[in-house]
Amino acid sequence: MLQTRDNITTLQAARELYGSTSAVSQTALRKLKSRVQLKLFSHLFFLDYTDARHPVYRRYEQECLDLLYQAGVLLREGEYVVSEKLYRRCQRLASEGEFTQHEVTSLLGLRQIYAEQRQVGHYRRVIKQLAQAENLLQNEQEASRIFWEAKMMLSDQVRIRQQLLTKLPEFVQQTEALYQRAATFRVYDHLYKLRLMQQELIGDYEGIIRTTSESETLWEAGKLNAKRFDRRYNMFYSVFAHLQARRLQEGLRLAAQYLSAFHRSSGNWFVFMEHYLLLAMHAGEYRKAAELLKMALDNPFFSKLRTAAQQRWELYRAYLNFVAPENLPVRNLHFAQLMHVLPEYSRDKQGLNVAILILQFMYYLKQRNLEELLSRLEGLRKYAGTHLREAAALRSRLFFRLLQLTVTENFDVVVCRRKGQPLLAKLAQTPMPGEAFAGTEIIPYENMWQLALQLMQPEQS
């Protein structure tokens, strides 16, 4: 009941279950919820972490956690022989998987066993290993502190992301120094992700391609721990970077190759598919884009996506229908209605608002609806003046100026093409912005301008 009906209140649930809303009924409901919750918690011990949908490290880390739990219980019960075996096994697995924190916990358990049993030789060996592991762990924890500080600043707000940009070079330098002292996977992973974060925020997509390629090479050479490195993360970033760097055909090839690595029930599958779809849209392969869109919308797990994610897919469908209706037919009435509800899709100031405003303008340009176009132009001016003042938003500002020509030149395609040429040339020389200045071009502005010129062509008699 509580799962299927999100808005049900405690009083409503008590009435439906017990026929009244009295204090006794509400107390009974609270006890019932507590029992159900405890039963659900007990099932956590039986989760299958060998499932391929999980990050690769989970199955190995969970094995360590299980051993630590069993060894700890036995040690507290005074069973030294079996608990020692379990701690030793956990230490070995933790060392192989570079789970330093779990290795330290195992060594602490062994230290207690050997101290209480007066096994001097074993005790001396363990405390030496413990000192080395604790030194590694200290470096790892400092790297984690730096990484999570950066992650915390990776806000949806553009201003905070730009503040992070000024601190990231120092964060990367500090983590590189830590990696020199402790070349463990955990430190490497934080350094790798900090570099990707920095490159993504400044729009250095060629840098991301190099970073992901280097990591893939290290993994293939066996220099990255196979029990820890999740290649899907690397694949995801590589495809994303190829999209942003406009290396479209290579990106499409990689996306097709990598897709099978993502389970279709996971949220990561849908995000990966968004990048795959955008690669096809940017490459002008609209038939392929329609196939990918259908795959996503037909996925039975689509309904479980957050509302914002579902609305992004609706926007992609609207764009695809506008530029290539023959590949994805949608009734005109439905498309017209979509134009009116799109503004509700994105209330933040950096997400898909620009893409929504542009699609609305193109829709009314196709109709030659001057009144609506003038209204949208005013909206574009206000939006640009308020939210696109940064240098990195130059592409959007340039395209807004191109769209403005269509109205000021009274839909004269010859004049618009001539006067728009300098703006178009500048647009072609302007790189995609980094994620700190996020704005999604579902179809490249250069392609959208060519479509606008086509829409203004006089009809053939």
Features:
single chain, mainly alpha
Structural class from helices and strands?
mainly alpha
Rounded mean pLDDT is 87
Rg is 28 Å
Residue share in β-strands:
under 5%
- Gap between N and C termini, in Å? 63 Å
Largest sheet: none
The geometry reads as globular
**DSSP, total strands:** 0
Succession of helices and strands? HHHHHHHHHHHHHHHHHHHH
- Uncertain segments are 343-350
Helicity range: over 70%
Q: What is the number of helices?
A: 20
In short:
The chain is mostly helical and 461 residues long. The protein has helices spanning 10-18, 23-42, 56-76, 80-97, 100-116, 120-153, 158-181, 185-202, 205-220, 231-244, 248-258, 267-282, 286-298, 307-323, 332-341, 353-367, 370-387, 394-408, 413-429, 445-455. Residues 343-350 have low confidence and may be disordered.
Structure commentary:
This protein is an all-alpha fold and 461 residues long. Among the domains are: 10-43, no CATH class; 56-118; 133-229, no CATH class; 346-461, no CATH class. Helix content is 72%, strand content 0%. The chain has 20 helices and no strands. The chain is globular, with a radius of gyration of 28 Å. The model is unreliable at 343-350 (pLDDT under 50).
Topology (SSEs and partners):
Elements: H1 10-18, H2 23-42, H3 56-76, H4 80-97, H5 100-116, H6 120-153, H7 158-181, H8 185-202, H9 205-220, H10 231-244, H11 248-258, H12 267-282, H13 286-298, H14 307-323, H15 332-341, H16 353-367, H17 370-387, H18 394-408, H19 413-429, H20 445-455
